[in-house]
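Quick start: read one record
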Amino acid sequence: MTAATNARPDTFEMVFVHNAFRQQFGAMPGLIRGVADGDRDRASVVVGFFTEMTRSLHHHHEAEDDLMWPLLLQRAPMDSALILRMEEQHERIAELYRCAERSAVTFAERADPVSREQWAANLDELIDALTEHLHDEEVEVLPLVEKVLTVPEWEALGERGRAGIPKDRLLVFLGFLLQANTPEHGRDFLGRMPAPARLAWAVLGRRSFRKEYRRIYGVDPS
């Protein structure tokens, strides 16, 4: 066998993405509760950010549903209970973010204390479910992926996830990824990207991300 044949997937990028989901969803209840009564303009900003993040999470999970779980079920039948539990967690998370989306619509219209607390409470429940799922996936599923999936199969999953991000938002999303991880891991992540992408981040991305971050959080990224 060649070295290429023996190569196993490097699941580093999955954890990198998960950290961004943890950070951004974790911050949302605070963003919601920080909207002043009647400030529908600010409510619209927070709702828009939430909608973008849930759309990104949906594409991330959809890619796993289509490309990862079927292969793991086929190649690791002894771990089928684990994979089915992961699928059930996806379904539960989808239910929770759809519920939160409905609350977000009401809050965007009213920006009042009742709708604010309802939406924030929905987000708290979503965050709990998402946190559990991301932990389980990293601890139990990614080691299995490294054993039974090929490098091209794993790379196809990443490409599918990136395809769900609008092209005009790729650099902003890159900023959220880098901001949620350590500088060392950020340099590693950037080093794996093509040179044109690194140049685009250096020339345009940092400035675009800072502007977007200030719009959402009211402060510069740390």
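The mean pLDDT is 95.
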